[in-house]
Amino acid sequence: MLQVRDLGVAYGHARVIHDLNLSLNPGEMVFIVGRNGAGKTTLLKTIAGLLKPISGTITFKDQSIVSQSPEKLARMGFRFVAQDKKVFSELSVRSNVELAAYGAGEPMDKAWNKVTQLYPKIEEFRDMPAGNLSGGQREILLIGRALVGDPTVLLIDEPTEGLAAIVIQDIFRILNSMRNAVSAIIVEQNLSIVKRLADRIYVMKEGNLICEIADKAQIADSTQLEAYL
Fold first, then answer.
1. How far apart are CA 172 and CA 195, in angstroms?
2. Which of 33, 82, 126, 129 is surrounded by the most beta carbons within 10 Å?
3. Is the pTM of the predicted complex or chain greater than 0.90?
4. Domains of the chain by range and CATH?
5. Are 87 and 130 within 8 A, CB to CB?
6. How far apart are the C-alpha atoms of 114 and 108, rounded to whole Å?
């Protein structure tokens, strides 16, 4: 469904992704792991149309998307959830969802129901400024917003970074509920999450994908992955 071939990305003269190849199949949850600075966020931003590659191709359902804008990709079903957990801080939680519903052309009642099904407790915060939510609650809100409009591909960057253990379990439950319903590429360092959810794992180092793990027994054994973090 999604194919990345020989991808090269640079910031100015500094090349940060080198001839990278990656694929994503329908309903698949793929994780990317690697140390800080490996190029993981750059890869997601490039697929999402926020950065333009200097070489290579990105195709979605056999159509080239390498020159498409983020807005066009969003209309095609792509959603990017950034690492920074930024919401529209001064707007209410419900209004944050309403903006996503308007952009996706989805009725607000349907959009709000999706978010509350993911995280029923959010009803308690519906009229609160979204900036007053905890980091974990903001991440849940962002994932819920991303699911508005029935996306095809989710790109999620470090969803559990800096979160308390109890919130990480909420994130795990939410991601687990999405399995097989949407295709996702997720950058994540928490190997407990990765090994329980991943259909495949790519290991990234210094702008290269150095390993692909598809064997279920290897995915479940985090000791191999720890060497890459």
1. 11
2. 33
3. yes
4. 2-87+152-226 (3.40.50.300)
5. yes
6. 10
